[in-house]
Protein 1
Amino acid sequence: ALKKFIQIVLLDGLLVDQGEITYPAVFSLFWFIQLFLNCIIGMSLAIARSFVVVTVSAVSCCFVDFTVMPECLVSLDTGYYSLLTTAYTHHSSSNPVKLAGITVLW
């Protein structure tokens, strides 16, 4: 919430006018604070994700009837949606049916 407040209200609303920075010294201070908050949030998400994955993996290695990340716990894995986005983007650009269609049309 603090990060979004800094980004939307302070940086975009008060310190930037039509894409131009109006107060560079104050802007750089809040930009650094936002960068620092991004690092803290990223580290905490990485630690939380590692904890969730290790815990679920330790439990699931005893069972054969579900995968490493069960579907009910996938929302806790912060890297899952990034993987889906990467897979979708790669598939849309290298889809064999799409490439064959484009080749035939040209």
Protein 2
Amino acid sequence: MIETIGAEFIDSIKEAHTATHVIAKDDKTKLRRTPKLLICICKVSKILSMEWLEQSAKEQRILDTDDFLLLDDREAEERYGFSMKETIRNGILARRKRGGVLGGR
């Protein structure tokens, strides 16, 4: 499915910083706070449901991500004590102002 849209799966935590899109939840797996996810959140704001990949593959092109952002997992937000909407917004602002969540370092 990933190959259909010309993308590649990043399996290694050492390569997580190169991600442009993150599939963080599917019908079977709930959002989990993993090292790869935390690295990716520092670099990208496209934290998505599996539906984005499925629909992109179906249309054989990379779809806009706005309708597929993972903003509705209240259970994970309560469990981990965060807001995905705020996290994404803060990441976008930090990348604009400082070049990255960690100040471009």
Protein 3
Amino acid sequence: SPYGTLVLTACMDGCARLWDAKRGTCKLALHHVNGDAVAAVMSASFSPDGSLFVTAASGDGAVRIWSTDSGNCIRAFENSPTVWTAVFSSDGASVLTASMGAVVKLWSV
């Protein structure tokens, strides 16, 4: 996180995990599920102020923005089937995604 208190991981098991950096304990485990299918989380990154984070999943093409405090999904974007990465802009107002086939999109948050 921007303040070094949290660590965010993206996992092939379809889960993004938010960890307490000091204790090494998992605070949140958030699953990318589309129907009955679990999609591998390819990337996860914090917003500049750390209040949100974005995840990108392959398979379902979902890009989701989550609240760091509550773990609630506050926004979702449907992208191409294989999203490799998603990152916030420096002002936190947009999310940039990169997908298979050299597809790059800019989304308003």
